[in-house]
Amino acid sequence: MTQLILDYLIEGIYYFILALIVLIFLSQLYLSLPRKFRKKYIGTPDFKTLVILPCKGVDYTLDENLKSLKDQSYGNYKIMAVIDSEDDPATDHIRSNGIEYVINECQSGGSGKVRAIATALRKFDDYDAYVIVDSDVLADRNWLLNLLRPLIDESNGISTTFPYFEPKNGFWSKFKTAWGFVGVGMMQSDITVFGWGGSLAFRKGLFDEKSLNDFAEAVSDDMAITDLCRAREKKVAYVPESVVTINSPDDWHVFREWSIRQTSLLLSKSRNAYYIGILLYGSSALLFIGAILLSVFVSAYFLVLFIPLIMNEIKMFKRLRSKQAIYILVQILLPFFYVWNLVVGSKTKEIAWRGNRYSLYK
Keyword Transferase: yes or no (predicted)? Predict the structure, then answer.
């Protein structure tokens, strides 16, 4: 009798796990289906535009990046770099490329980048539109034109894009490339789209004195501007035609610090992101493990459980500029790394960013 009960219990556990795996499979299959982003912004903007370029230190390919920002097809704009002091090593590069600069004068409690942006907005208040761009960004000639187009429609509060991380080192720089595709996926949904501060445009009226003062106390410019846009009941416009490149020579140490910083910044604003991420990527990792165990020990028919992974592999290879076999391994490892990253990020209370440390919970 005891053995019979034990047999029923084991059988019940087996079918429960099997049902759970099938449910995860169906949800992952749905998420892996290809989706097309159909929005395309048209028109010819004519905003008098200030491109704000916060600089600290010498980024990889900095001179190439600065030259690309100067060589834009859009004519009515001016670049203004913002540095903490003329002793900064970026200053010589800024001067040699003929770019004007000002010294960061904001004394608020925000991050160095946020204070640099606030300085420029206060000093130069006679422009129709403002663009924030990171110094590690390499832009094509139509980047600025495409980025400004959505602002013709006043229902759009900010216009943004997302970068392609071009690997310039070994495995972890390639891992970062694939990691970036998650950001692209978020941008393609009206629910999860956000203003990426590495390439972001907005009209003059987005900030008033109070909101600028509040902004100057923020750590993340991305989240602060996105929150302000939504508070104004404006849309966030994603412009894939304005994609920029970030040349990334990341090793493990650099990538680890960068990925944890990005995740902890997100979690500091939205705790729900942690639970959603654990559910999404944890189930993906569980499906992979379940597919291996069931196909090896139960039946080869369970190889069908690998379909979502294969579809995600195909989707990733379509996005890659350089197709390499190593990305097959990268795609397999991504869900496991995301779960680890979310756990570490949820426990991170302070981040390091360009030589400074910032508390995420004041």
Answer: yes
